[in-house]
Inverse folding.
């Protein structure tokens, strides 16, 4: 007889099911689901549907977050671009959703957020369609990529050569220097910064999938990124640069190095990460030839609740960002990690 379980630890066979599912992401893997628990002390749940033989037929990871500003909610999964329910068919999906709703009521949350790339047929939930990801199909060689980028973009990449940049591609040992750039960039944006421990925890959860890229010039790291590979797609969840990097085109050099590394690693697609359609980041990614792919974020809402606005379109968010940029860097470096753990 088929059944569904809500667990606080991953069951045997979870990762095996995730890895064989065509719509899975690295963020469905058990160790990655637990990043929030290990880095911030958050609660995580593994909802599992089983078929009549007892084999896993559906998997839905959820992480609980809560803040004074935005209330309590469950997300699949926070901090990353992808998540949501994985099921072998509509019956398994229905059982996962029913169990998630039961958990939501038990935990008294205001909403459940499911982050999907593919749409879910038959799910009667509120839906956000304001986010897209930008995907670039990669050619077989860096030379072929250079030709398809066009002369204007190639000249911008070459502009960085005047600074004689030194590029480093490596692993966990580069996180401290990546983090120095990342936290400066987040302050400039008015966004609370993750702790360095968060990035170390992400890396440790999938060490064979993560790579860091640094571009050094004028005696310091000027641009840096954190890459995650899954199957034949390379994704850049986090990239940042110092204020000096853009006028020197070192941010362009960073993206060129990421794309070249992805081709050399045998990837067939590069994921520039999510953007709001029509935004500046959308336009930046489009110039590389990346094409928009709709993201489908579904929401179960508690009675009387509206679709959450945990984004920069929320006036409350914009005001907070404006204030945050004016605060001293020592303060935001210390306070940011305590705030951001409850932002999905």
């Amino acid at each position: 007889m088929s059944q569904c379980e809500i667990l606080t630890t991953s069951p045997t066979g979870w990762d095996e099911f995730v890895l064989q599912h065509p719509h899975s992401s690295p963020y469905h893997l058990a160790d990655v689901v637990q990043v929030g628990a290990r880095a911030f002390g958050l609660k995580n749940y593994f909802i599992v549907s089983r078929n009549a033989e007892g084999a896993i037929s559906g998997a839905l990871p959820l992480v609980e977050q809560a803040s004074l500003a935005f209330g309590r909610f469950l997300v699949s999964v926070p901090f990353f671009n992808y998540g949501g329910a994985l099921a072998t068919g509509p019956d398994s999906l229905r059982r996962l959703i029913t169990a998630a709703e039961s958990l939501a009521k038990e935990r008294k949350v205001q909403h459940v957020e499911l982050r999907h790339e593919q749409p879910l047929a038959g799910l009667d939930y509120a839906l956000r369609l304001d986010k897209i990801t930008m995907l670039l199909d990669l050619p077989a060689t860096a030379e072929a990529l250079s030709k398809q980028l066009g002369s204007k973009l190639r000249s911008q990449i070459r502009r960085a050569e005047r600074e004689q940049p030194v590029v480093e591609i490596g692993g966990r040992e580069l996180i401290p220097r990546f983090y120095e750039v990342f936290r400066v960039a987040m302050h400039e944006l008015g966004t609370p910064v993750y702790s360095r421990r968060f990035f170390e925890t992400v890396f440790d959860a999938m060490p064979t999938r993560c790579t860091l890229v640094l571009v050094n010039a004028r005696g310091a790291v000027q641009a840096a990124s954190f890459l995650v590979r899954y199957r034949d797609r390379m994704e850049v969840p986090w990239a940042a640069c110092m204020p000096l990097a853009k006028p020197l085109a070192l941010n362009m050099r960073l993206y060129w190095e990421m794309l070249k590394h992805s081709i050399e690693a045998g990837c067939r697609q590069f994921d520039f990460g999510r953007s709001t359609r029509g935004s500046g980041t959308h336009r930046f990614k489009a110039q590389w030839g990346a094409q928009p792919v709709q993201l489908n974020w579904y929401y179960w809402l508690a009675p009387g609740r509206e679709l959450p606005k945990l984004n920069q379109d929320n006036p409350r968010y914009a005001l907070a960002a404006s204030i945050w940029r004016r605060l001293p860097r020592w303060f935001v470096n210390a306070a940011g990690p305590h705030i951001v753990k409850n932002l999905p």
